[in-house]
Specification:
Layout: E1 7-9, E2 15-16, E3 27-28, H1 42-55
C-alpha cells in the first residue's frame, strides 16, 4: 500500500494512516472503485444494494 494514504477502519469507522487501527481491525481505502463502462460486477452490486434497501424498508 502507498505511504501517506488515509485509510478508514472497518471496525470503528475512524480514519488512520496505519494499516491496523488502534482498535485492532484492518483499515482500508475509503475511496470508491473507479468507474468503468465494462463493469463485470455492476449488476451484482446493484442487486445487493437493492436487496439491502428493501430489507431496511426504504424501498
Amino acid at each position: 500500500m502507498a505511504k501517506n494514504q488515509i485509510l478508514k477502519c472497518t471496525g470503528c469507522g475512524k480514519y488512520t494512516m496505519k494499516e491496523l487501527c488502534a482498535c485492532g481491525n484492518k483499515a482500508v481505502s475509503p475511496k470508491p472503485p473507479k468507474y468503468s463502462p465494462e463493469d463485470k460486477y455492476g449488476d451484482y452490486r446493484r442487486k445487493v444494494k437493492h436487496d439491502d434497501l428493501v430489507s431496511k424498508g426504504l424501498l
